[in-house]
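Private note to self, pasted from the team thread so I don't lose it. Backbone tokens:
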């Protein structure tokens, strides 16, 4: 939980419709709850999965072979009993349920032993984080292997499961073995947090698998559907997460693949599609495509990345994409999501415990290349702007952040800019951390404020993206990060970026701070900067293994002190930071970034009260960009007839032209 402010949304959890009434409504747009076991998923998914096994599709063959090994006694990390229970249903072979039932019963007995000894069970550890997996496993085996269980097993399993689920939603009254064992209630009312999806999973499966059979502590079907998903998650996502994605970033945010699975489980069980009740899930498909860098092997390293600080693609990222492609298979973006998944560094699940998802979401959808997608994207709910020169693996890609800073796994990165071309050239230094939890301002590419000798921290709040514009061969975005600075010494923090295809970014910052502060324009890179002199004046060169990032310092023309910092030591294993430090007051910073020889000349170009620069690109095009010193009012003149003024406002950026 760390330092995040604990809060609960005021959305009421009104249990609007009883399970009995919902069952009666049947069909239509509402849920149709099955009465006989198996109740979960299989009524609408059985034929598809059986066909995959019968026709020996590769994903089905691989998964079944793994399950056979587990059933025969091989210990397989992360293998859940419900995987075997599913095969028991699909093949009719009793061995799968025999092993699944014995495994779940052993687990429940171990939990009962802990409870009898006066302790909380494993399902309650870490604020009930694993309840979705642990209790969900019990309930799926309960449903799919129902004839293979004894009445005593069913009674004990349901008693344990319902107590666990009830405790999640009643933290002050939580009990085990008759003993009150309160817990924090962490994120039980925060659908933007990854814990929430675990809580939903356990609750949904209890309702679906055991309605009318559990102890009746709550009407769990109405609770999870009407109270939690429709009453809380949907309105939160509609107001806070327009455009998809997660406020936790791309590390913990990938946990949303568990939410996509719940949408599928619910639809397979009831016929009702909850994934379309908000635009979030569908929008997340396109946003996630843009969050993956052109080499298709890593994701934008936004927020905490405790599992792998580098953001390297993993099975969870693949699952995120293929689940969404399955849920929205009639949408043209789904074909591109599937293409990306299958042509990424994870073309199929690498971890055995994830094989099942290649089986579940194996699709006959014909994938289509990414090339038709627009190269510029904006996700307003998370405040992220993405642009790339094209959809090739050698494209230049940038990301500008300017949205909400409200979750514990988010970073102090509002206003930060990332730059990638076949490798990181300007990155979040968190990539080099051993923890993946380097949240501090110093780790990001922005203007940092120092008061005395202490960095002014960003605090919970919401930055604002002021402008998003694009045209043929260029894109523009502007961010106001002042709202995340509670310290009155920070008076203005605005950043504009003009991206000129294929490899140039012009970065302009308007800043103001009170006396006693200093302002540090900083850029973190894997590569040490070296000052070089050439026809462009004094430049910084960050020379990588494949490309060099050049930085031309245009403003301040004088008075900014250059310094460099080696990040190695403490939590960091490598990395470098360039710092350009200016005094307090109103300042403007203007820097031109480009790769290799993409820019052949840079000339300061002020006019009409604006500060700017003229750049000549390697292809002969010339662009003049001038920025207002007070507000977003930027002029762009470019070879080819471009002559525009870029002011506040957000262009519509459709997925496809």
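Design output:
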């Amino acid at each position: 939980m760390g330092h995040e402010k604990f809060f609960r949304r005021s959305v009421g959890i009104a249990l609007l419709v009883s399970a009995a009434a919902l069952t009666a409504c049947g069909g239509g747009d509402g849920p149709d709850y099955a009465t006989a076991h198996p109740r979960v998923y299989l009524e609408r998914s059985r034929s598809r999965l059986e066909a995959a096994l019968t026709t020996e599709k590769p994903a089905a063959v691989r998964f079944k072979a793994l399950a056979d090994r587990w059933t025969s006694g091989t210990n397989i990390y992360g293998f859940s009993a419900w995987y075997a229970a599913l095969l028991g249903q699909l093949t009719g072979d009793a061995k799968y349920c025999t092993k699944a039932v014995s495994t779940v019963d052993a687990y429940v007995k171990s939990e009962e032993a802990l409870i009898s000894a006066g302790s909380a069970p494993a399902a309650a550890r870490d604020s009930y984080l694993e309840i979705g997996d642990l209790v969900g496993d019990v309930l799926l085996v309960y449903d799919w292997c129902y004839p293979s269980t004894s009445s005593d097993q069913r009674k004990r399993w349901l008693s344990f499961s319902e107590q666990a689920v009830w405790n999640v939603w009643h933290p002050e009254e939580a009990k085990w073995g008759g003993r009150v064992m309160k817990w924090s209630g962490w994120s039980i009312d925060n659908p933007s947090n990854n814990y929430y999806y675990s809580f939903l999973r356990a609750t949904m499966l209890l309702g679906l698998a055991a309605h009318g059979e559990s102890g009746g502590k709550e009407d769990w079907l109405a609770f999870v559907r009407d109270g939690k998903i429709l009453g809380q998650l949907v309105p939160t996502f509609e107001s806070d997460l327009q455009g998809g994605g997660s406020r936790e970033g791309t590390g913990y945010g990938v946990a949303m693949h568990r939410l996509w699975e719940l949408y599928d489980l619910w639809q397979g069980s009831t016929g009702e599609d909850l994934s379309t009740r908000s635009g979030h899930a569908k929008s997340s498909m396109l946003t996630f495509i843009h969050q993956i860098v052109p080499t298709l092997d890593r994701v934008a390293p936004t927020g905490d990345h405790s599992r792998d600080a580098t953001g390297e693609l993993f099975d969870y990222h693949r699952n995120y994409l293929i689940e969404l492609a399955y849920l929205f298979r009639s949408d043209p973006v789904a074909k591109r999501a599937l293409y990306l998944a299958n042509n990424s560094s994870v073309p199929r699940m690498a971890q055995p415990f994830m094989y099942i998802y290649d089986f579940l979401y194996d699709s006959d959808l014909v994938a289509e290349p990414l090339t038709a997608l627009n190269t510029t994207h904006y996700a307003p709910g998370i405040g992220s702007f993405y642009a790339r020169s094209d959809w090739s693996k050698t494209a230049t890609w940038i990301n500008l952040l300017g949205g909400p800073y409200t979750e514990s796994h988010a970073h102090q990165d509002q206003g930060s800019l990332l730059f990638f071309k076949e490798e990181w050239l300007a990155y979040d230094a968190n990539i080099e951390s051993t923890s993946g939890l380097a949240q501090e301002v110093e780790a990001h590419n922005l203007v940092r404020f120092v008061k005395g000798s202490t960095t002014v921290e960003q605090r919970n709040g919401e930055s604002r993206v002021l402008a998003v514009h694009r045209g043929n061969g260029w894109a523009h975005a502007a961010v106001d990060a002042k709202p995340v600075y509670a310290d009155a010494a920070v008076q203005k923090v605005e950043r504009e970026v003009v991206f000129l295809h294929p490899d140039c970014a012009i970065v302009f910052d308007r800043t103001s701070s009170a006396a006693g502060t200093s302002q540090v324009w900083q850029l973190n890179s894997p590569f040490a900067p070296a000052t070089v002199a050439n026809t462009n004046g004094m430049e910084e060169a960050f020379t990588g293994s494949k490309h060099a990032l050049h930085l031309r310092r245009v403003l301040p023309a004088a008075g900014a002190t250059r310094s460099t910092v080696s990040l190695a030591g403490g939590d960091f294993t490598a990395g470098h930071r360039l710092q350009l430090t200016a005094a307090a007051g109103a300042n403007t910073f203007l820097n031109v970034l480009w790769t290799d020889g993409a820019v052949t000349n840079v000339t300061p170009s002020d006019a009409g009260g604006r500060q700017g620069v003229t750049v000549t690109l390697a292809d002969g095009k010339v662009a003049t960009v001038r920025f207002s010193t007070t507000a977003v009012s930027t002029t762009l003149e470019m070879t080819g007839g471009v002559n525009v003024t870029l002011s506040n406002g957000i262009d519509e950026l459709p997925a496809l032209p």
